[in-house]
Design goal:
single chain, 16% strand, 123 residues, 2 domains, Ribosomal Protein L30, Chain: A, alpha+beta, 3-stranded antiparallel beta sheet
């Protein structure tokens, strides 16, 4: 039997139909005792790693309460916005104050806003 080159094998794979490729995979599995299926442990590893990573959240201002001026000051401090932009943000409730921040930072932001009299949620 003539030895096929890598390029000849790749050319066959480019031209083969799905059924021909399926038959080829089955034949390789039977002849060499291997499986084309990915092991379950490999698929589960990224999910476990993702669970260990801190979750990022978006801090949303839902209400300013009675102390609107105090909330505007805190929003300016957190976001770095000017007075007019911070007021517009506070007036347009619900308003995203900070997007995609770690939960630890989000808790700090929430505490500052709640101390000023605002109501805050995470998304």
């Amino acid at each position: 039997m003539a030895k096929l080159t890598k390029d000849e094998i790749l050319a066959f794979l480019d031209e083969a139909t799905i059924l021909e490729l399926n038959d080829l995979v089955k034949a390789i599995e039977e002849k060499y005792g291997v499986s084309a299926a990915a092991p379950v442990a490999v698929a589960a590893a990224p999910a476990e790693a993702a669970a260990d990573e801190p979750k990022n959240v978006t801090v949303v201002l839902t209400s300013v309460g009675d102390a609107k001026v105090g909330v505007i000051k805190v929003v300016r401090t957190i976001t770095g916005l000017g007075l007019v932009d911070a007021k517009k943000l506070v007036d347009a409730l619900p308003a995203e104050i900070k997007k995609d921040v770690p939960t630890e930072e989000a808790d700090n932001i929430k505490k500052q806003l709640m101390d000023a009299g605002a109501t805050v949620e995470y998304k």
